[in-house]
Every structure is written in C-alpha cells, then in structure tokens.
Write a structure and sequence with these properties.
The complex is a heterodimer.
Chain A: H1 2-8, H2 14-19, H3 25-45, H4 49-53, H5 62-76, H6 78-82, E1 85-86, E2 95-96, H7 104-118, H8 125-151, H9 157-167, H10 169-172, H11 183-203, H12 206-222, H13 226-242, H14 248-266, H15 274-277, H16 282-303, H17 307-333, H18 342-348, H19 352-356, H20 358-361, H21 371-378, H22 381-395, H23 398-416, H24 421-443, H25 451-471, H26 485-512, E3 521-524, E4 530-533, H27 535-546, E5 553-554, H28 560-567, H29 580-591, H30 594-603, E6 608-612, H31 623-637, H32 662-666, H33 668-674, E7 687-688, E8 693-694, E9 705-710, E10 716-721, H34 731-738
Parallel strand pairs in A: 5-6
Antiparallel strand pairs in A: 1-2, 3-4, 6-10, 7-8, 9-10
Helix pairs in contact in A: 3-8, 3-9, 5-7, 5-28, 7-8, 8-9, 8-11, 8-24, 9-24, 11-12, 11-14, 12-14, 13-16, 13-23, 14-16, 16-17, 22-23, 22-24, 23-24, 24-26, 27-28, 29-30, 29-31
Chain B: H1 3-13, H2 25-34, H3 42-56, H4 59-85, H5 90-114, H6 127-149
Helix pairs in contact in B: 2-3, 4-5, 5-6
Classes of the chains: A mainly alpha, B mainly alpha.
C-alpha cells in the first residue's frame, strides 16, 4: 500500500499519470477487474443471438426434460423432487426420476429462483433456465483465468485464457441462451475443479483438496462427464509418480480429494455405489492405494538409507503395482467390478457402438470429428494449442504435467466423438493463452532486454532449480531478447490482427451456426424477410388443448422430452434411453404392418401416434430418414420379425417412391408419413422434397388409425388409434366395408369355418 | 525415488524425522518381510526402522500414530465383519469403512504437514493451519458419512 502511494505521488501531471497507468499495483488490479468484467459481459452477450432473434425459449430436446424437472422442483419443493416418480414418461413403466438424473442443474436454477425471489426480483423460472448457461459461461471464463494463472507467471496469460474461453465457439455451441443442458454448468465446474486441484497440489493443502472434492461432488451432481475428472486426476498423479516427482504435497492433496470426493459423489442417487463398483472409477482407487504404498516406502527409505534397499524398494513398488493390477483384472473378470459401460467403452473401441449398441451409434453427436470441425470451433486456438503444450514441456512443473496429460486425453476424446470437443475446449484455451502470452511478453516490451539480466536469473535459480536443470537440459536455454523495434511492432501487430480475426470468427460462427433453436425453423423469404416455421409448437399445442389429460402419445424417442415438456402428455419412450427394449417395441410398431402394430399399440394403451414428416418442406431430420435406425433397433430384439434387408429394394436401395419394397410400403411409418400426401399435389406431381422422389398417386391406406391433426407445413402428423370395431371385425375388413367394397354377389359358398369353441 | 527430492531425503535421513504414514510399527516389519527377496538381511532393516522411529519421532507425532493405528484396527474389523457377515446394507458398510479410511488419510496428511522434515514441501502451511484444515476436512468427511449411512 505504501509503495503504491509512493509510486503515485510523483506522477502528478496528467501526461505522466497517463504514462504511469498500469505501472502500479492498484491500477493493475483495477484493470484486471475491468477486463474480466468485460470478458464476462462479452461471454454473456455473444450467447444471446437466439433470444434476441427469436424468443426466450428452451432449445433442442434434452433441455426440455431439465426444464420440466426444474418446474417440478420449484413447484413441489426439494424433497418431492428427490423422490419424484414420474408416471408421465415411459408409459407402462414410469421413471424413478430422482434416482435417474443428475440433479445439479435443476437445484442450481431452483436456488437462483428462490434467491431472486428473496431479493424481491420475481423472475419466471423459464427465464432463469434460458439464461443460466450464459451466466455460467461468464463464471467459466473467470475459472479459466484462475486456472491459467496457476500455470504461468505471465500477467496476460490468464486474461487471454478468460477471453478465449468466453467466446470460443467450441464451448458456445453447448451454452447458448436457451440451451438448458447439463453442460451449461458442468464446464464451469470442470474448469474450477481443475483449478482447485492444481491449487491443492501446489500448496499440498488439505483445505484446497477438500474444496476440490466439494466442487467435484457438485460436478458429479451435474453431469455424467465427471468420469473425465475421475480419470484425469489419478492419471496426472500417476504420471507424476512415474516421473519421480512424488512429493508429500501430492499425497496430501490426492488422498484428501479422493477420500472426500468419492464420498461426495456417492451421495448422488444416480451414482450410488458406482465409484466402488465400476471400472471407470478404478484408476482413482488404484492410485489412491498406490500412493499409500509409495508414501510408506518413501518413509522407510528416509529411515534406512542404503543403495541396495533402494533397488529393493523399486522392485517392491513395481511388484505390488503389478499385483494390484492383476487383482483388478481378476475382480473384473469375476464380475465383482462392472466392466466399462458401453458408452465409455465405445470411446476406446470406436467400432463397438455401431455393431452392438445401435442406439448409441444413432446419435449424431457420437460420430468422429472431422478436421474442419476443429478449425470451425477453435479457429486460431487450434494451431496455438500445440505450441502452448510445447511451452508446458519447457517449464514442466507439476501443473504443466497436468496440462500435457489433459491435452493428450482431451484431444483423443475430441477426435473420437464430436460432443467431447466440449471437454477439449478449456485446455485449448489455456494452452493457447500460454503460447500467446509468451509471444506477447517477448515482443511487446518496449525496453530491450539486458544481457546482465540473464546471468542474474541463472544465479538466482541455481538454488532452487538446480535439480530441475539436471532433469531437463533443454529448459536451461539462454534468454534471447528482441532488440529491433520494427520486428517487435510487426510481430505484435500480426498477433493483434489474429486476435481480432478470432473475435470476428467466433461471433460469426455463433451467430450463424449455433444460435438456432431447433423448436422453430427459420427460413428466408425471397425478399430477405424472415419466415418462421413453427409446426412443432403448433402441433404440441394442439395435443395440449384437444386431447385428454392422460392421452398416451407414441412417437420416436427423439421427441419424447418435447412432448412431455410442451404438450404435457404421457409418452412411451423419450430421450433418456434407459430401456432399450421399450424403444425397440416402438421401433417395431413403427416398422411393422398395421396388423402387427395395432395390437402393440393397444397393449400399450396408445391413444395418439405422432410422426415428423419433412417431405413437403424439405426438412431432412424427419422420421423417414431416421426410419432405418428404428428398424435396426427393433431388429436387435426381434431379428425374425423385423429385417432391415426387407426395407430395401432388390438392388439394395432405400426408396420411398413407387418402387419401394413392399415391406416399406406396408410399414406403419411409411403409411403415416405419406397418408393423403399425394392429394396435396396435382395428379402425378406428388413430390417428396427430402428424398427427391416422385410418389405414386395412390397413397397408402390406413385402417387402424385415423388422421387427427396435421400441422401447417405437414411437419408433424398426429394419428388417433381407432378403437376396436363394434361388431368385432378386424379393422381391415371394417374399413373396406366402409369404403363400399361390399361383396356384390353374396356368394353362397361357405368358407372353411372352424368349430366354435365356447 | 524422486530425483528432485533425493538431496532432501539424503539429508533428512541422518538426524531428523520420518516422512510418512504408516500403521503401527508391527505391520511395518511384516510388510517389509513379505516383500523381501534380496540378500539384505531383513531383520536388520526392520530393526533399523523401528529404532529410527523410536529415536526420531516426537511425542505428539507418536500420538497421531496411535490414532492412525486405531483407525486401521477399526477399519480392519469392519472389513472382516463385512467379509464374514455379508455386505447387506452396503451403504452402511461403505460409509463406516470410508470414514475410517478417510480419517486415516486426513490424519496422515496432518502428520506429514506437521513433521519438521517436510517443512520444505509445505512452506505456506504452519502446524496450526494444518490442524485447522484437518478439522474442516474431517467435518466435511463426517457430514458425508452420516448422510450416507442413512
């Protein structure tokens, strides 16, 4: 404080004051606060495109369930939410919601809701849900700032990382306003947990370790991706031990984190005993045990200094590690520990999901990432990222090892699965910020470096870093300065230009690619004005207003959450794909003949069937395009009743026009999609704009269903399941009777009758 | 084992104190014995360790060690009971067992942080701070355990 005052006094004239801005400590702090404030504001503002263009609604599919659960929490209180049995999904089965969801997101927004009400700012729960992700993205930027400041002494790196994290499209894609998904708060928790872990490791403090465990517990309560932390932190510890960097700080921080964090994670009903039972969590347990051993042997070594004993220690250490690994393998093979679950296993064996679990492979986010996606989501960060990792190798303290490990695994996972780009983005931002700040620190200093500086630093570092220099000779390179003002200006100018382009790219990507609510489809009229296609909400609203309160809706699982959220009607299956057989049942009903489907629908008390059809508008994400996945999933359960091969023509084509296979034409999905569709066009002109096929004039005939509602652009079609026939005929006979196909001459010939059995 | 630490370890070896955790000294010798295979006489090693322990450990640290030994015994008993009688209320077993394990590692951390020889590893943590941290972490641990045991 006194130093600041002394600094400030001589610069009394305004010019000197201007020159000295940023020199003393308090102005620096003020600038930092202002910059972080601006970054948070930019992070929030860049996520609001969809709210400003359209309206403040929940996007996508999954968020609709989260929203519905949050409404339930707010309306009924916490305890009811915790034991909520939801009988309006998975119709005959119901869903034990309290035990099958991660409650962190809902509880967070519930707390915010009540907090705001306590402050007499009554905000609608929908608006809190919509704007939760932008708010937390500001916090994520701050967490990235903290994490980066642990990595480097450079004053600018943290701010750069915060700026990158705030606007990088890789993170924006999952956190725009209205995207009320678990990732909205999970990425903040991920980065903040990592920050706390690094802090705990550096200080060796039990308190920071406990804080890290608490935030880890919060993360577990929020997102299934917590397994990433559970595997990354032990891996970091293991790499440190292998590098011979075991220290007592590692012991205290890791064991505190593990002991408290595991208990904290087991408090979540959805997680339960998984941390001691499944393979995903075994690395953490193994390293926990291994650390005890290492620490004990370290103690013994300090007690008995002997060369031979040392080698014996290493052998013992390796031996026990090997034995425990064998024990783990043994326990897994004998079934005490569950093997990797399919979702995680498919990350290692990338062909696994496609063959064995079509329901995982059917999700578009679970595909491998293409190169352009990396550049699209991270722009210049993607080529600064390796440079930043390289710089971490040069310094290589404990925390840099973390960045390296994280970078390796994060990039592998992001390469395997598109949606895991999200976990890569934080480390990319941190590493890129380290690289950029290194560059700017070298080139943006007006003063030329003095050679004496160099020696002094060497002298200074001999004490503490002597052993380090022995480890890495490359790290002890001479300091080379830049003396030419022109080259400084040129490089700094280039970098500034890149940074500006980065901002522009991020804004453009966010505005054009990631800010469209999938509930409303926007298109442009020829004169440039916007035309909104709002069929989804139109149809859901119809369901809400014109059907019984407990009318069961059958649709493909993609729309389960939206129907539950917007139409407020019970559904058979939804996006939480926990019961594969039930989904296969719906798939079978959709892909079979009417005679087969009708009993299935009767057995499940289905009242309405909803299909999405994009043929009129050219909306490609419709049910005919998803139809093959329904067939595949149904085939997995009933291989002899549903066969994928039957849906192709003889030449192996998937067609919907006149040449489609008979199975295809008779399937319920085909009939529902194209029912009456040809009547929309002049004869011979019926056209499917998605498949680009010309349809036959004679459309399919539906006997067991009747059309209940078709939305304006024919995107959503709703059918009502007919009741049983009054006089006990089957529906085909009844329908043909209605159509007037009466037998002209009542043939007197008696058919082969069977004996009546009473 | 760490090259970085080897200098410190060598200096620490002569007069001053131990580094880490272990359970009672009795188990020390058994562990050493089981994994012994070298020509070195293990008796000698074990005796050295015991002697070193008794000579260099301050009274307060020994008290901590007694508590840790007690925790090991309690944890061992619980585990034995679980093996013998089955693990039906698995959450109860887990919370009891992890309470002992968690308390054990927290106490070990306290012991590490308060040991003189480790001062260089923890420049910012005074013994009082270490104890306060220990109390906070133990409270959190017990909250979770009580919550989990139902």
């Amino acid at each position: 404080m006194a130093a600041v005052a002394r600094d400030a006094r001589p610069s009394s004239s305004p010019v000197e004051l201007l020159v000295n801005v940023g020199k003393n400590q308090s102005t620096k702090t003020l600038l930092r606060v202002i910059i972080l404030g601006f970054i948070a504001a930019a992070a929030v503002a860049s996520r609001l495109f969809s709210v400003i263009r359209f309206e403040s609604i929940i996007h996508e599919f999954d968020p609709w369930f989260n929203f519905r659960a949050t409404k339930y929490l707010v309306a009924h209180g916490f305890y009811d939410f915790w034991d909520w049995f939801d009988d309006r999904t998975w119709h005959p089965l119901g869903r034990v919601t309290g035990g099958t969801l991660y409650p962190g997101l809902m509880v967070t927004s519930g707390v915010i809701y009540h907090l705001l009400r306590a402050l007499t700012v009554p905000v609608d729960i929908r608006n809190i849900c919509v704007l939760l992700a932008p708010a937390f993205s500001g916090l994520t930027a701050f967490a990235a700032y903290l994490l980066t400041n642990e990595m480097t002494t450079s004053p600018s790196a943290g701010l750069l990382a915060a700026a990158f994290m705030g606007i990088a499209p890789g993170y924006i894609s999952r956190s725009v306003a209205g995207s009320y998904d678990n990732e909205a708060i999970a990425i903040f928790l991920l980065v903040f947990t990592f920050y706390l872990w690094i802090k705990a490791l550096k200080l060796g403090s039990v308190l920071w370790g406990a804080l890290c465990a608490l935030f880890y517990g919060y993360m577990v309560a929020s997102w299934g991706g917590y397994a990433f932390i559970t595997c990354l932190v032990p891996l970091h510890a293991f790499v440190l031990i292998c590098m011979g960097r075991f220290s007592m700080r590692l012991y205290t921080s890791y064991t505190t984190w593990y002991a408290l964090g595991t208990l904290a994670s087991m408090q979540i009903p959805f997680v339960g005993f998984l941390p001691v039972r499944t393979s995903e969590h075994m690395p953490a347990l193994g390293i926990f045990g291994f650390l005890q051993l290492v620490a004990f042997l370290e103690y013994v070594r300090s007690a008995v200094p002997s060369r031979q004993f040392q080698t014996f220690l290493y052998v013992g250490l390796g031996g026990i590690f090997g034995i425990s690994l064998l024990a783990l393998i043994g326990l897994t093979t004998f079934g005490y520990i569950a093997p990797w679950s399919g979702r995680f296993y498919s990350l290692w064996d990338t062909g696994y999901a496609k063959i064995h679990i079509p329901i995982i492979a059917s999700v578009s986010e679970h595909q491998p990432t293409a190169w352009p996606a990396f550049f699209f989501d991270l722009n210049m960060l993607i080529w600064l990222f390796p440079a930043g990792v390289y710089l971490c190798f040069q310094k290589l303290e404990d925390e840099h090892v973390f960045i390296i490990v994280y970078a390796l695994f994060g990039s592998y996972f992001a390469g395997v699965m598109v949606r895991l780009m999200l976990t890569l983005t934080p480390v990319v931002c941190v590493a890129a910020a380290i690289a950029v700040s290194q560059l700017l620190d070298a080139y943006l200093v007006v003063k030329s470096p003095e050679p004496a500086d160099n020696e002094e630093e060497n002298l200074d570092s001999t004490g503490k870093k002597a052993s380090k220099h022995g480890v890495l000779r490359t790290a002890s390179q001479p300091v080379v300065g830049i003396y030419n003002l022109l080259s400084k200006g040129f490089v700094a100018g280039c970098m500034t230009l890149y940074l500006l382009i980065f901002v522009q790219h991020c804004t453009w990507v966010t505005s054009n690619a990631y800010s469209s609510p999938s509930v409303v489809l926007a298109s442009r009229m020829p004169d440039g004005s916007q035309h909104i296609i709002d069929d989804y909400r139109e149809a859901y609203q119809w369901l809400r207003q014109n059907t019984k309160e407990d009318a069961k809706i059958m649709s493909w699982w993609d729309y389960g959450y939206q129907i539950g959220g917007m139409a407020d009607r019970p559904t058979l299956v939804d996006n939480n794909t926990w019961n594969n057989t039930h989904i296969a049942t719906v798939g079978k009903a959709m892909s079979s003949r009417e005679e087969v489907s009708y009993p299935i629908m009767r057995q499940h008390e289905v009242d309405y069937v909803l299909v999405v059809f994009g043929g009129l508008l050219g909306y490609s994400g419709d049910d005919i395009n998803k139809f093959l996945w329904m067939v595949r999933i149904a085939e997995g359960i009933w291989p002899d009743e549903v066969k994928e091969r039957d849906f192709f023509t003889a030449r192996g084509e998937y067609r919907v026009d006149g040449e489609a296979s008979d199975t295809m034409k008779n399937s319920l999905m085909y009939k529902m999609s194209y029912y009456n569709y040809a009547s929309l066009f002049p004869p011979g002109q019926a056209q499917d704009r998605v498949r680009g096929a010309r349809l036959p004039d004679q459309g399919p005939v539906l006997n067991t269903l009747e059309e209940a509602y078709t939305s304006e652009n024919w995107i959503i079609r709703i059918y009502k399941v007919k009741d049983l026939d009054n006089v006990g005929r089957d529906h085909a006979a009844a329908a043909s009777f209605e159509r007037g196909h009466k037998k002209k001459k009542a043939t007197k010939k008696r058919g082969p009758r069977v004996l009546r059995v009473d | 084992m760490a090259p970085k630490k080897s200098a410190a370890a060598a200096s620490a070896a002569s007069p001053s104190a131990p580094a880490t955790t272990t359970a009672p000294t009795a188990s020390t010798s058994t562990v050493a014995k089981t994994s012994a295979s070298g020509p070195q006489s293990i008796d000698q090693v074990a005796r050295n360790i015991v002697e070193h322990y008794q000579k260099t450990t301050p009274q307060r640290t020994k008290l901590i060690d007694v508590f840790m030994a007690f925790l090991v015994v309690v944890g061992g008993l619980q585990f034995a009971y679980c093996v013998l009688a089955g693990n039906y209320p698995f959450n109860a077993f887990l919370s009891g067992f992890s309470a002992t394990v968690g308390q054990f590692v927290l106490t070990a951390s306290l012991r590490i942080q308060t040991t003189e020889a480790n001062k260089s590893d923890f420049p910012s943590i005074s013994p009082e701070r270490a104890f306060a941290d220990y109390v906070v972490a133990s409270l959190i641990l017990h909250f979770f355990c009580v919550n989990f045991i139902n």
